[in-house]
Design brief:
The structure is a homodimer. The first copy, chain A, has helices at 5-16, 23-31, 39-51, 96-104, 120-127, and strands at 56-58, 66-68, 74-79, 85-89, 107-118. Chain A is 40% helix and 23% strand. The longest helix of chain A is centred in the middle third of the chain and has 13 residues, at 39-51. The relative contact order of chain A is 0.14. Chain A is of the alpha+beta class. In chain A, strand 1 (56-58) and strand 2 (66-68) form a beta hairpin. In chain A, the strands form two sheets. In chain A, strands 4-3-5 form a three-stranded mixed beta sheet. Chain A has a two-stranded antiparallel ribbon with strand order 1-2. Chain A binds a DNA duplex through helix 1 and helix 3.
Chain lengths: 128, 128
DNA sequence: GATAAAATTGATAATGATTATTATTATTGT
DNA sequence: ACAATAATAATAATCATTATCAATTTTATC
């Protein structure tokens, strides 16, 4: 894997915008600094970085793939109203792979835990 | 909601094929009995039945929506080799909404827990 | 049972996210 | 500096899903 300015910028954009952006969102953010960037390049590199374990691909939230600079174990929550994505601490359901293996004999490589509901801000707005 | 023969057949197909089929898979299965069925009708009714809570929509397994006749609380596992979907018992991670609410204050409406890895059969085949 | 209103269907076009293609440009080892 | 290799930009293609709409089916009423 050679160095590329575009890939570098894509990674930085993800680190500086910890909002679990979609590929298209990263593309829009980057276009300000790098107007000639191609959407295909953004997809290519986000997938590459995720495959290398440098970032994380989040699927299952709303059908659209999102990307996370934080590779530590944790889960996600998407607000059904404002569509913002929040982190959920790992200890709400720790060691799932081991539990599944113990109960079923399946060999778990990865797991996705995603929640959907109303975030704090939208709860307030709805309450009235 | 009026009765329709097609919707009835779609529900029966799901109940008789407990393999967590995709919409396209239901369509292919149904074409044997109902050659004139339209893919749009399959999508329309699977979504309708899921919205009514009669069946369950499973998203997050592999990007493609799958459907489950079993509406009881449980999770899913998809084999990364043969792509078969297995059920995972609820008690590997029970009461997640309450735990998330307790830790974060988020109001959880639904959650998706999906595992990926090697199923028993594919483990055997790989071992040699 | 006939009939009109409402719901559903089949066929297909449209959409939206993602991937593939390819000629051009950038990077790297020598 | 230069050839070999990798990456890019632009865009076409793909795939799952949804929207559109004329024709058909279902249902309530007579």
């Amino acid at each position: 894997m050679n160095y590329s300015r575009q890939r570098d910028l894509i990674l930085k954009t993800l680190q500086e915008n910890a909002v679990h952006p979609t590929a298209d969102c990263v593309y829009e953010l980057l276009k300000k600094k790098e107007p000639n960037i191609s959407l295909a390049t953004v997809y290519r590199n986000l997938n590459l970085l995720a495959d290398k374990g440098i970032i994380r691909r989040i699927s299952g939230l709303d059908g659209i793939a999102r990307f996370d600079h934080n590779t530590h174990k944790h889960y996600h929550f998407i607000c059904s109203k404002c569509h913002k994505v929040y982190d959920v601490p790992y200890d709400v359901a720790p060691d799932l792979p081991a539990r599944v293996a113990a109960e079923t004999g399946l060999e778990v490589e990865s797991c996705q835990v995603s929640f959907k509901g109303l975030c704090g801000e939208c709860q307030k707005l709805t309450r009235n």
